[in-house]
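Human: Note C-alpha cell order:
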Amino acid sequence: AVSPDGSLVAAARNDNGDPNLKTDFGLLDGRTLEVKERFVGHAKAIVNLSFSSDGKTLISVGRDGEIRRWD
C-alpha cells in the first residue's frame, strides 16, 4: 500500500518464501524504501494493507480473521 501523498509504503514481510508466514509488515520511506518502522500483531498472514484517505491511519487484514487499525 502507498500513502496518498506517496511518502510512505506499507509492505508485508516474507523472509522465508512462505506466503502464510507474512505476519508482520514494515512502513517504508516512499522515496528511499528504507524501513522506518515494523508492525507485528497478526497470528496469520497479512492479506491486505490500506491507508486512509488522509494517510494518518493504516488498516491491515490478516488470514487470522482480524482487521487492525494502526494510527
